[in-house]
Design brief:
It is a single chain. The chain is mainly alpha-helical and 315 residues long. It folds into two domains: 60 residues; 231 residues, MetI-like fold (Orthogonal Bundle). It is built from 13 helices and two strands; from the N terminus they run αββαααααααααααα. The chain has a two-stranded antiparallel ribbon with strand order 1-2. β1 and β2 form a beta hairpin. α3 packs antiparallel against α10 and α12 runs antiparallel to α13.
Length: 315
């Protein structure tokens, strides 16, 4: 009995030493975690203050009447009732929806088409990727000024000079309600397709090449490989691109502000531009906040619909 008890003592000591080492390692890990959280804390506080703070303030102001330097008077749902009865608001909704219906598919198709070309083994493909991505990192105001010259209603405008060869024009691309939204959509597509293109490039490069090789051995054409392999595997990427392009289209402001100022005859009077006019021209911050809340809910609903139609992928 004594010999067995003596033989158990080293095992107990080893077990206790192992427990002490594990506790010491756990303490060091927790100390490192606390230090990491301490470094992250300032950024987290800034994110909460400047992201969630304005969002909460906007939600509160949407139920109030407030002007700069004045008192906040809570008026319940009056701002939202005013939205329902405001014909200018519904016109801005129509303009925003039409603009989004132009930009979202045009940008997505352009980005995917170029991504398919730029994932091939071509000489200088990296340079072409950089060149196509360049408009995205260009200032929107600068790009809008360039396109103002392209859309100039006189013969000196680049586009009118081109169509003038066929004895057409000059056309007031930004001065006509029939052409102002397509003109803005083309400019926004040129400005923004580079980001979505790079997302598609990453998604295409992540698809195992053996899938295409096996389908090609079975005699599948390029179109069959694209529709049966590439598109199904790209569904999460397509969903992401559709969501970000929808958000960008619904929030368009810079190009409208620089190029049209909401004209002609409110033909480009988008929701965000109406929010700007109500908040920073008329200083009606409660009504502007109600427009912002409507915009958030509209984008959320559209994203959920896109998730249901496109985002789900079979495992």
């Amino acid at each position: 009995m004594r010999s067995s008890q003596v033989s158990q003592l080293p095992n107990q000591e080893q077990s206790m030493q192992a427990q002490r080492r594990s506790l010491s390692a756990l303490w060091r890990q927790s100390r490192e975690a606390r230090a990491a959280y301490l470094f992250v804390l300032p950024v987290f506080v800034l994110f909460v203050v400047f992201r969630f703070g304005p969002a909460i303030a906007s939600l509160v102001l949407s139920f109030a009447d407030y002007e700069i330097g004045g008192n906040i008077t809570f008026i319940g749902l009056d701002n939202y009732r005013q939205l329902v009865d405001d014909s200018v608001f519904w016109q801005s909704v129509r303009v925003t929806v039409v603009y989004t219906a132009m930009v979202m598919p045009l940008t997505t198709i352009t980005a995917l088409s170029l991504a398919l070309l730029l994932t091939r083994s071509l000489r200088g493909v990296g340079l072409f990727r950089a060149l196509f991505f360049l408009p995205y990192i260009t200032s929107t105001v600068m790009a809008a000024i360039i396109w103002l010259w392209i859309y100039s209603p006189t013969d000196s405008g680049l586009l009118n000079a081109v169509v003038g060869i066929a004895d057409i024009g000059p056309i007031g691309w930004l001065q006509d309600q029939a052409t102002v939204l397509p003109a803005l959509a083309i400019m926004s597509t040129w400005k923004g397709f580079g980001y979505s293109m790079m997302i598609f490039v990453a998604g295409l490069l992540a698809i195992p090449e053996m899938y295409h090789e096996a389908a090609q051995i079975d005699g599948a054409t390029w179109w069959q490989r694209f529709t049966q392999i590439t598109l199904p595997l790209l569904k999460p990427i397509i969903f992401f691109v559709l969501v970000i392009e929808t958000i960008a289209s619904f929030q368009v402001f810079d190009a409208v502000y620089v190029m049209t100022s909401g004209g002609p005859a409110r033909g480009s009077f988008t929701l965000v531009y109406m929010l700007y006019t109500q908040g920073f021209q008329y200083f009606n911050f409660g009504y502007a906040s109600a427009i912002g809340i409507f915009l958030f809910v509209a984008i959320l609903i559209i994203a959920m619909i896109q998730r249901r139609l496109v985002g789900r992928s079979e495992s």
